[in-house]
Amino acid sequence: MPEGTPLSRTDARVAAIERGLAGIEGIVRTASDVGVSREGDTSASRRKENRAEIHVRLDRADQAREADVLAGVRRVLAGYPDVSMKVRRQSLFSFSAPVEVDVYGYDLEELQRSADAVAASLAGVEGLRDIRLSMVPGSPEVRVAFDRDKLNRHGLSLGQVSQLVRDKVRGSVAGRIRERERHIDIRVMNGEEQRNTLQAVRDLIVAERDGVPIPLAAVASMSVEQGPSEIHRLGRKRAVIVSANLAGRDLGSVTRDVERRLRALSLPAGVTVAMGGQNEEMRASFRSLWLATLLAVFLVYLVMAAQFESFLHPLIIMFTVPLALTGAVYGLALTGTPISVIVVIGAIMLAGIVVNNGIVLVDRINQLRRDSDLEAAVLQAGRERLRPILMTTATTVLGLLPMALGLGEGAELRAPLAITVIWGLTLATLLTLVVVPAAYALITPGRAAAATDAATAPAAAGVLPVREGA
């Protein structure tokens, strides 16, 4: 609602909107909070009478249902032109909007104009909805400019008159009432009709001289102005946040279009822009998760190196990791699943799972090589370990299948992880049965050693001990 809207009017408007939302198919129930602070600020002292939140619960969570409900919500709110709307979907990892552009500057007017230019540029990006600015006009306020010469002529001081005006408009605490554990201030001030209009403020009596009342207008000039309701600071710099929601496109492609448009903008000197929101948070998460992935692969390698007492055999087994990642990429592409933090977590899990099949196969080859040559050991190990490897993979895939199909609440969060593991593990298993034995046969120096032994065996057999004196 516009700044300055009283709480009672905001509450009535919210009640009317909730009645309209009740007729939208797919909405189970709504809950409202009237007089809330700005998003992300839980301070009770900053609650605004003109702001409210309506929480909507759907009967099922899928993209088609969300799109239908959002369209219905926009139709309902279109009937209330005095209401500005910001729709956001609860996210597990972020409280920010999907797309945010932080506009930095010092001069508030330049900052506002630059933010408006950024918002206009974002309006041309396909897939963006509900573009908003964090800087909104504040409540109308009366600005009083005192004339020191006039104050001196009437024998008044600036501090004295300022305090008197403040007490009459905002009130002064004359005492307190204690009610159980609460202390309630007794505030004395002028009545509403004597302080709620510009003329009423002009007519405030600030002093009397020779029995003649002196109004505030005699010593000051007044004007009604409207400044920003809040001044945001990011990193101790003044900033305006331009935010938007997604509609029909993934975050990565939209971000690239937004960055391209921002580079084409001509902004005043001293004004800079930077990407924020879920995109920047996702990039930071990816950086930390990729480091975690490398660390996980390294630790798996160390464990296998200690187990096999070899640096070569773990490398052969680690061939399964890129094979698994290839399968995961194919799965994500075929199912239309975007890369997210959940997908990267699934990739980390996948790196630890797929090496199991390689360990089972390589360990059996090493056992058989004690009694047979390399080629026979590789072939026999493949035959013996085929069934256990396929059974292990099948049980894992079937166990994750319901999760990948998106059954139940919260499925949109779990499905990307299951898709990553299922496709990666399936392809890695099929290729492990071919790539790992082939790599073992090519890299392991068993053939060369066997050939050397075969060449030296006849010579060794022809050497006979000779007795002295024979």
CATH class category name of the domain at 310-453: Mainly Alpha
Number of strands: 13
Tally of helical segments: 14
Report the sheet with the most strands, covering strand number, pairing sense and barrel closure.
5 strands, antiparallel
CATH superfamily of the domain at 310-453: Multidrug efflux transporter AcrB transmembrane domain
Percent helix, as a range, is 40-55%
Give the CATH architecture of the domain at 310-453: Up-down Bundle
List descriptors.
alpha+beta, Alpha-Beta Plaits, Multidrug efflux transporter AcrB TolC docking domain, DN and DC subdomains, Multidrug efflux transporter AcrB transmembrane fold, five-stranded antiparallel beta sheet, two-stranded antiparallel ribbon, disordered C terminus
TL;DR?
With 470 residues, the protein is α+β, with helices and mostly antiparallel strands. The chain has helices spanning 7-21, 63-77, 108-122, 148-153, 158-169, 198-202, 251-264, 277-308, 312-318, 320-335, 341-368, 374-404, 411-443, 446-461, and strands at residues 27-34, 52-58, 99-104, 128-133, 141-146, 172-179, 182-188, 205-209, 212-215, 220-225, 232-234, 237-246, 272-276.
